[in-house]
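Troubleshooting log. The previous structure file for this entry was overwritten by mistake, so regenerating from the original sequence record. Sequence copied from the archived sheet and checked twice against the printout by T.R.
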Amino acid sequence: MVALKTCWSPCIWNPNVTSGSYCCAAYTIAAGVVFITFTIYMMLGGDSTQIYLPLFETDVNGSMQFYGWVFILYFLMLIAFSVMLVLGIRRTHRGLMLPWMIAMGVAVGFQFLFSLWLCYGYYIYISILVPALMNWIWMSYNIYCWLCVYSQYKIIYELQTPNIELLYP
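Regenerated output below.
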């Protein structure tokens, strides 16, 4: 069953989930490039002193290098999966759409757990609720993008499902 019939974002309205899935892939590529750039900036000694940053409590010369490379590798894979998503939509190949859906599910799970960690780990700072709520709003947008791509996946699935009718009584 298709979850969405149209896909919209705050800036772009798409009449169908196909063009919406292309926009989700473009959004993921752009976000990946921005996060890779920001992670490299922090790994080279840039500002990572804000409490709501994922690399907040890491040592610049120690654990930040390891986790920074993990983030960079993940975002490079997400960019590659976004390209595969575009190819999968154009070729109506569901298998090329699955890696993006899995990787975006991992991102949504990380966002949820990170915001919970912020709320429970730094509960004495009331100001941490604003970044946690903003992260949950952003997480809900990522869930919406995932639903858009999932709807396209189901449309392709229904197109490729053979219709077999038994003709005998």
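The radius of gyration is 19 Å. Archived copy saved in two places this time.
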